[in-house]
Amino acid sequence: QVQLVESGGGLVRAGGSLRLSCAASGSIFSINAMGWYRQAPGKQRELVATIISDKTKYTDSVKGRFTISRGNAKNTVYLQMNSLKPEDTAVYFCNLWQLARDYWGQGTQVTVSS
Question: How far is Cα 106 from Cα 64, in angstroms, rounded to an integer?
């Protein structure tokens, strides 16, 4: 069993920054991928960023503004979000993929006001 707990969401003005954190617990293996997805009202969940070992991948709309990283213990993942825009408003979900299974956190709300 794997549990993911996100934190760090909130309300921020356009141009501001937030840092999301996700802590994984349970049966975590050394080889896995972690990432962040988001879902805005009325839209499908979309990939924001992933990290596998030290390789990162971003959706085009956040490149140059967001940075994904993992903690030293490898069971945490962070998303540093700078230059936030109103269109970044969404519920952000932490994801862990291992042994061909996806695990999800409960989500954290990010709201960017104009």
Answer: 27
pLDDT in the model for residue 39: 98
Q: Is it the case that residue 74 has pLDDT exceeding 80?
A: no
E-strand spans in 1-114?
2-7, 10-13, 18-26, 33-39, 46-52, 55-58, 66-70, 76-81, 90-98, 101-104, 108-113
For residue 20, CA distances in Å to 29, 100, 101, 109 come to 22, 25, 23, 10
Which of helix, strand or coil describes residue 48?
Answer: strand
CB 35 within 8 A of CB 62: no
